[in-house]
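Demo today. Your pick:
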Amino acid sequence: MLPRLSADTDLIRAYGSASSGQAAELQGVVARLTAVGTVPSTSMFGPVGARFQAALIQAAGREAHRVSELSASLAAARSAAWRAAQAYSESDTGAGNQIAGNW
């Protein structure tokens, strides 16, 4: 077997898998942030409590959206990492064959 000439493709694939796992964990965070809007009404605390709850729900919604976007980016990183690893493998094989004279 020829040595790798350019990159550790197993490590690149492991990064992609780890990114996918982190994306799934972040979706759990999104679910918890979204659930903030389903808490019982704080109207018993008066107008201050109601305003606080409204602001909290709004902020949690914004953060849920941002975390969801981050999760999607991490999920996409898995595919990109696997494609990059495949491209490196193909390049390594081609270069190795050329060096060895196996055109």
